[in-house]
Amino acid sequence: MAKTLVLAEKPSVGRELARVLGCKKSGEGCLEGDRYIVTWALGHLVELAPPEDYDKAWAKWDLLTLPMLPERMKTVVIPQSGRQFRAVQTLMRRGDVSDLVIATDAGREGELVARWIMEKAGWKKPARRLWISSQTDKAIQEGFAHLRPAADYDNLYHSARARSVADWVVGLNVTRALTCKYNAQLSAGRVQTPTLALIVDREEEIRHFQPKEFYTISAKLDGFTATWRDQNGQARIFDKEQAEALVSKLAGKPALLTEVKRTWKQTPPPAAYDLTELQRDANKKYAYSAKETLSVMQNLYEVHKILTYPRTDSRYISDDVVPTLPERLRSVMIDEYAPLARQIMTHRPLQTRYLINNAKVSDHHAIIPTEEQVDLWRLSGPERNIFDLVARRFLAVLLPPFEYEEVTLRLTIDGESFHARGRIVREPGWKSAYDRTFALEDEEEADPEDREQSLPDLRQGDKLPVLGTKVIVGKTAPPKRYTEATLLTAMEHPAAQVSDKAQSRILEETGGLGTPATRADIIEKLFSAFYIERRGKELVPTSKGIQVVGLAPADLRSASLTAKWEKRLGDIAQGKEREDAFVEEMRGYASHLVSEVKASDATYTHDNVTREKCPDCGKFLLSVKGKRGKLLVCPDRECGYRRSVTQTTNARCPNCHKKMELRGEGDKQLFACVCGYRERLSDFKKRRESKSAGKGDVRRYLQQQERNQDTGNSAMAEQLKKWLEQNK
Predict the structure, then answer these.
(1) Is 157 a catalytic residue?
(2) How do residues 387-436 score in pLDDT, each as one tens digit?
(3) 43/520 Cα distance (integer angstroms)
(4) Which of 301, 309, 337, 354 is catalytic?
(5) The domain at 164-207+481-598 falls in which architecture?
(6) Which class for 276: exposed (0-12), middle (13-18), buried (19 or more C-beta within 10 A)?
(7) What is the pLDDT of residues 549-583, one digit of tens each?
(8) Domain limits of the chain?
(9) Which end of the chain is more exposed for a tag (fewer CB within 10 A), N or C?
């Protein structure tokens, strides 16, 4: 009997597909059933060949061998993944396998994973595509009932391959040119370099910023305060004597209420989450990195199956998803979400005008809950937090607008104009999904005079006693350093960094630097290359990062150029442009960039050299601050030696409960806290082992109980669930 081979991207997804398809028999790198054989990649199994596979001269890093421009790109099996590739290839060559279902991630990179494996293994038989946005049993079954020909996604594959080739041709050539020219481990890339330039440019603005003192005048009245403004509406005075003279003039004078303006306003709910917006809010609220948020989202999508596909750039759903909304609401009808979910369900038809937009849904719709029932106690702390963000946003977008009355007062004190502003909430609407402790502030108000306050019931013409006027001193603030949240915003909307209006428009149309799926990796690369470091939530460029932006070709630092590339890749995916034309242009561009680096007379300086020599090559080691602590690294690219000096850990000090550093190597490793506490690693492990059962033990016990079908009636299990909730 002929069988269908199903190719998933990861083993975990492969096992879930196998369970739904009834494949129970284990084989080499696969699970087999009567009709289907499910196998999987390990992410990429095949990649573009390294330079030395084209020309032996390219094995050596030398300026004389650049640029490297192969006539035809080749692929190779990744050595560490060779066993799994051979298993997949064997299955593809089996006589009883009649066709293939591509079940890798439904996106550009997922398409590339599958197509390169198929090409390398020599697949010539029919192939179809599974395209789903969630990993629930229902979604998988419906997806297999509506498989489409793989040829429908050929253009998506061409776009993915063009992206990969462009990164190879441009990235490898410029990285080698910089490294060889300046004898340092430097790298550059089409998205990496302009992203780094954003951080470096911001740091330069901060360094050159000159704070300026200004003054505002505040009048205290019964129950509220008002702020002075000039004829142009400006509140700031840059002359101290003028401000003080104005306060003296107003002393003891009453106020006349000359205008009371009431405006009925409403704010629609925020759109549902795409990946970038979710990463931004997770960083603001929980200080999670973009990479951490994506990793947690993958778990909620693949393992728990309670959220839809994470790597999406859409914040809306299409009409065909609407019939599933009641079931999705029922899935979140738990815990603190239950009352609001029930309230939404009672109003039919559902309020979906802020959620549906067919024109703005690309490959995948917004991140929303699936129909799978949620067991909150199964989730880890970070998983619970990310689910919470998505669940609240899903409920919020199905609620009516927030309605309020804005009250603006204008008062006159001895001919001078003062203003106050307040708000009266009439209908909380979507804000019912959030409480004060949860609310995410999208913008920090720059001026105290713009802040709203509760205002008493007043009428035009009222005379009010002024309890006092005073001068408030302030200073103009420099621009803020980027956090991961604000950097993601800048990557998505880099138009603000470009003065040319035409280029700004292109940047907005193309979605900015990179894609939602790649931005987290780009930020991680900046950390691993020691171009940036974290100070609290702020991202600060290192000396190396600042120098490499100066050394990189000016073209490569341009946000607009990179965005244009992304637009063209999108055009290739839609069949509007040929892959070959784009790749040929990138080859010429790479050659131009290499020439620019060769001709430069700039210099690079290591300003973090220590007096400690590398034990392998004898060069002086560099002291760097990595994402997880301090390291000593060798400046020689071919040597590659590195040693950890300190690591930031999650272990808490028993005295002050702050996170401790792990220092030293081998048997001499010890924990150190800023409060002065010290403890050997071996002693720390003994202390941990002697503790009573932790949350992990409790969670495992509860899972075992559920498998034995005892959980429902066990009073102890219920108590343990509550304990887990309280100790997250």
Answers:
(1) no
(2) 999 999 999 999 999 999 999 999 999 999 999 998 888 999 999 999 76
(3) 17
(4) 309
(5) Orthogonal Bundle (1.10)
(6) buried
(7) 999 988 888 877 777 788 888 899 999 999 999 99
(8) 3-146, 164-207+481-598, 213-267+402-427+451-475, 275-397, 609-689, 695-726
(9) N
